[in-house]
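Hi R.,

Here's the input for the V47 complex you asked about:
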Amino acid sequence: MLDTITNKVEAGERLSFEEGVFLDEQADLLTLGRLANIVRERKNGNIAYYNTNIHLNPTNVCVYRCKFCAFRADLRDEKAYTFTDDMIRQRVLEAQQSGATEIHVVGGLHHQKPFEWYLDVIRVIRETSAELHIKAWTPVEIHWFSYMTKKPYRWVFEQMMEAGLGSMPGGGAEIFHPEVRDKICEHKSSAENWIEIHRIAHDLGLRTNATMLYGHIEQARHRIDHLCQLRELQDETGGFQTFIPLSFHPENTGMADIQQASGLMDLRTIAVARLMLENFDHIKAYWIMLGEQTAQVALGFGADDIDGTVVHELIYHDAGAETPEGLTVEQLHRLIREAGREPIERDTLYRRVHRDGAKWSIGEPILADAVTS
Ligand code: V47
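And here is the predicted structure with V47 in place:
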């Protein structure tokens, strides 16, 4: 089967579900890396992208109790918090001072906060900064807003876009297959909802990302099923930009007995994703979750993006991530150059960022065929 797969990868053809499961379960790491690197360099040449961004998790109070989550809190928990408008403004000013081009906003589903409160989070950001790209909410939140307001998803998006929403991050996907989803987040909005909400976002012109949470109770067939479902929606809409495999961090979660995925498993998952998602332009090695070393190696195993100078990240750090909360641009450059790649700063929509310290302007789209070396 490996010969057939190699021929297909070299010819740029699509791999089947069975071929994906074979690769995931049986291919050796270096073969996976070599094949994934063919696709990676065909699409993005020698470039490794990063962006300068900041995170805002406006509340950790959440009605759901997903077993993998160490971030959520009950209202009366000691660690429970909710941002005020002033705190949001402060975070945006901090983003401006650090030269961030993007603010990434996700949080808990606070049962005492109406839809207007979430809309205000976006409004306050936009009022404080006209330039910052607002990448916010996941389908889990959009579904909750729709449930609260009894309005369709499309209406929810239209309100958010009017307030300043620019794109949607990839969270909340976890593992689509019900054999797994029902065990790790049974109450959360379904895989069908996740797909449908991205379909609507794409139809409204919003670009979005996709993720997969791996390294817990799922098996190869669940991961490949997840990737095939994403690939199908991408065929239909073309609205996904980046796929981000998220390695499960067990500390302080309801699945703390599970051993964290090894660096090898991380690299295998990135490579398999690169090979299965031939219709996605980008695969992100999220350094904050993988660690700087694995993210660096991942740039040779299919990944072309390492996300950003992420400041104030809580979701992974609450779950035991020992990476620093932020890297400087110099550190990111060094990390990428050491991996033999060329760093390019992108904005959320993969346009070149021209920068002079904290001042920046957006340039032309970075086209895949323009970077092929
Ligand atoms: O949906 C939660 C995951 C996601 C844990 O779009 C955990 O650019 C590991 O989606 N261990 C949110 N993972 C983060 C996310 C994301 C991150 C970076 C970039 C982008 C993007 C999106 O984090 C959740 C869930 O799958 N998660 N808890 C944990 N203990």
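One thing worth noting: The domain at 2-372 is CATH 3.20.20.70 (TIM Barrel).

Cheers,
M.
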